[in-house]
Design brief:
Layout: E1 10-17, E2 20-21, E3 24-27, H1 33-38, H2 41-51, H3 62-66, E4 74-78, E5 84-87, H4 89-102, H5 110-126, E6 147-155, E7 169-177, E8 187-190, H6 209-222, E9 227-231, E10 239-242, E11 246-251, E12 255-258, H7 269-280, E13 284-287, H8 292-298, E14 299-306, E15 310-313, E16 316-319, E17 322-325, H9 333-346, E18 357-359
Parallel strand pairs: 8-9, 8-16, 12-13
Antiparallel strand pairs: 1-2, 1-3, 1-7, 4-5, 4-6, 5-18, 6-7, 9-10, 11-12, 11-14, 14-15, 16-17
Helix pairs in contact: 4-5
The protein binds pyridoxal-5'-phosphate.
């Protein structure tokens, strides 16, 4: 399973108390990785569940009651020449601080974020909870490659009144993941649901944004699609995002278009990296409004982007019963090139000329 919850044993925990952030690394129950692999599924699953339990955390809190929380998602990628590297964690650190500010929380310092993320991966790696590079991944452009997923998130302190969190916790957990989307067709449908509204929280990685995402994605899956696409809340005309990823259209004219940032679009780090890499290749990239009609009529290729999604082609897009198929349902040349470039940099197959990787082990 792509997102099975098998957290590595070492977890980072911090809390903002008396004006400063406390810090601790918790060692949750574990054996050696090979001992765990030899356990029965039932016993292993009990052990893994125990790693996800924290008896000293308040159950009734501003997150469990009112959804006040935010998170980040980044990856430590096994490198071709050994070790692990994290892709652009400084960008996640900055976005995490922005998300916390957007939720009226004290901001977690960016330097602490970077140290917590790298140290958590490093400490788990030392215990043998890590991944090694597999040259077979190169055969399908890392479509089936594994990585250590890093999930920093906030948790509200105990409280029952509707209130902001002034003493939030910050956790960092890690878990191995494989590819998020399956290879093959990825047909998408335009959803009626509205992910983000002007003056809302669409521009930060707030947990509450994911309620609509989960509902819309589940509707799309039930209707036989792999993904859903959101339109803007006001005019119901312009494309905004995929279910939890940004979206790109490579037009017949050779222009690469992605919706411009505003307060309803999440500024993806993969999105920003693709824009930069495409411009380096001499592609005309526009961050602008793109209507559903223009996308369906003019796009030659379409793909979604994100840490989990990577660069995933959408083979078709359906709106109100009308379907536009991209590149005859095949992965387009431009999409494949972008995917190979970004994955190649991430896994150390291509040179990291921009200094995007932070090597940790
Ligand atoms: C996290 C996220 C993305 C992708 O951001 P990356 O930094 O590329 O992982 C896109 N859209 C939404 C709504 C997200 O939450």
């Amino acid at each position: 399973m792509a997102f099975a919850l098998n957290t590595y044993p070492i977890t980072y925990r911090s809390q903002f108390l008396d004006g400063k952030w406390s810090e601790e690394y918790l060692e949750k129950p574990h054996k050696t990785p090979s001992e765990e692999a030899a356990m029965s599924d039932e016993d292993r699953s009990k052990l893994e569940n125990s790693r996800n339990c924290y008896a000293d955390m308040p159950l009734v809190n501003y997150t469990s009651q009112y959804g006040l929380a935010c998170f980040e998602g980044l990856k430590a990628l096994p490198q071709k020449d050994g070790g692990l590297a994290i892709f652009r964690p400084d960008q996640n650190a900055a976005r995490f601080a922005r998300s916390m500010a957007g939720l009226g929380m004290p901001q977690f310092p960016e330097k602490m974020f970077l140290d917590a993320v790298t140290e958590t991966v490093k400490r788990n790696d030392k215990l043998g909870f890590t991944l090694k590079y597999n040259p077979d991944w190169e055969k399908d452009s890392y479509m089936t490659a594994d990585s250590v997923y890093i999930r920093p998130f906030t948790m509200g302190e105990g409280g029952i009144g509707v209130n902001l969190s002034s003493e939030p916790y910050v956790f960092v957990i890690t878990t191995p993941v494989s590819a998020y989307f399956k290879a093959g067709r990825s047909d998408a449908v335009v959803t009626d649901k509205i992910r983000a509204t002007p003056n809302g929280t669409g521009w930060i990685k707030a947990c509450s944004n994911y309620v609509i995402s989960a509902l819309a994605k589940s509707e799309a899956l039930k209707a036989g699609y792999m993904e859903c696409v959101y339109l803007d809340a006001t005019e119901r005309k312009y494309i905004e995002e995929g279910s939890s990823c940004n979206i790109f259209f490579y037009l017949k004219s050779g222009e690469l278009v992605t919706p411009e940032l505003g307060d309803t679009i999440l500024p993806g780090i993969t999105r920003a990296s693709i824009i930069e890499l495409a411009r380096d290749k001499g592609i005309k990239v526009s961050e602008r409004k793109i209507s559903i009609d223009e996308a369906m009529d003019e796009a030659k290729e379409c793909f979604v982007s994100g840490t989990a999604a990577g660069v995933t082609p959408l083979t078709s897009l359906t709106n109100k019963g009308k379907k536009a198929e991209f590149n005859n349902g095949e992965v387009g040349e431009f999409t494949a090139d972008m995917r190979d470039t970004i994955k190649g940099i991430q896994y150390g197959k291509l040179p990291d000329t921009k200094g995007w990787l932070v090597h940790i082990a």
